Model the fold of this input.
Amino acid sequence: MPSMLDAVVVGAGPNGLTAAVELARRGFSVALFEAHATVGGGARTEELTLPGFRHDPCSAAHPLAINSPAFRALPLERYGLEWLHPDLPMAHPFPDGTAAVLSRSVGETAASFGPRDAGAYRRLVEPFLPKWDTLARDFMSLPLTALPRDPVTLARFGLVGLPPSTWLTRRFRDERARTLFAGLVAHVMAPLGGFATGAVGLVFALAAHARGWPVARGGSQAISDALAAYLRDLGGAIHTDYEVKRLDDLPPARAYVFDTSPTALARIAGFGNHYANYRYGPGVFKIDYALDGPVPWTAPQARSAGTVQVGADSAEIAAALRAASKEGRAPDAPFLITVQPGVADPTRAPAGRHVFWAYGHVPNGWTGDLTDAIERQLERYAPGFRDRVLARATAGPPELAARNANYVGGDIATGAVSGLQLLLRPKLSLSPYTTPHPAVFICSSATPPGPGVHGMSGHNAAKAVWRGLRRT
Ligand SMILES: Cc1cc2nc3c(=O)[nH]c(=O)nc-3n(C[C@H](O)[C@H](O)[C@H](O)COP(=O)(O)OP(=O)(O)OC[C@H]3O[C@@H](n4cnc5c(N)ncnc54)[C@H](O)[C@@H]3O)c2cc1C
Done:
């Protein structure tokens, strides 16, 4: 290791790994320090239940990763990453046994909303699809880390997306499309009536049509392992089992990049109240299952989808989000996001068996047990589900926060995705990756473009770092 490194990165989640790779690619000397025994943060894979069952404790479905401008520019396939696509990216079953779907095909998706809304859906997504790659790059680089390449399309996207999702879904006459969109917004734990939540739903839909919602062969760990292997090839050093508590724990460097929560960074770097106004959102209660067969969904579409949303209608989903984020109680009928990687990837479990996960929203720091409410919801749409369970591993907010310090109070978005904090995080600033110390930067999902495995916060932060390093 040189006596003075160019950059030290703290935290080996997708954003920390991407920041380290981007800096090493540009010839900077880089070392990365991770508290956990293995790299990955929210993109990892572990045998949580029974031998041979490979679970993704956090991310499993990857619309944002496969569409990420940062990841698409890296040779991750050469380092073992392979995307596997389920027949359907996502399905949203209803109590009557039918389902709306998010398909690669706009036509199939529109048809699943029913004849009264098919045209409205086409008119919503079709103008953006031919320009998707440029649009994705432009809005994932906000605020202003790069000049927009297509400002006109970005502005049109802003007009549709900046109002609340409840405005966007007024263009639909029936509940099917409204419900599916409400579920999409809930993926980032945002309130349905919140600022810019229309954009959240629209991004997930466009991502499905552009490149799908794949899983990684062998598990999400493959994404992190590919980033780590590439980093090592570029000469970067990775130190695991190394929790950073103070800046003095780190070797001398020209820049320090933190893939941590703003609160942790303030503690480590002595920034006092600098991030005191940063708000954390609701937590989640998650169950990883080992099953002795596929989930017995009533709706056939749900059986072939990688991701399945579970919530009867938009009112039930809104009530579940409200209970967890505003009313300080666990919802009676939790809205569930579930992923069944085995429909695309047979390597996750012994032959004929499956891994499956489901989570529902709960208040930040909640210490109860949501298992029964989650399984009652699943039984509504997949009768006989409980009989398939071989083993389950449950994790509420305290366990999630213990697994990963970034999930403060079980908030897997590392900060409320509501109000202006959806776009302007961790502070109201046009340089969100810089901090009060000129050599210290932040790159976690507490910075734009926010939660999800896409590495774009790391990519954008790396730009801020190398611009700074070039000047010194
Ligand atoms: C249950 C669950 C389901 C999810 N599902 C999906 C999904 O399907 N698709 C999707 O795209 N996203 C999903 N996500 C979100 C996604 O995992 C995160 O948004 C993403 O991992 C954030 O990346 P990051 O690099 O900012 O932080 P993280 O991935 O959280 O990584 C931060 C890393 O920093 C380390 N660290 C923190 N503090 C220190 C310290 N002081 N010293 C050293 N190391 C430290 C942590 O150990 C961790 O490894 C899910 C998350 C959870 C928890």
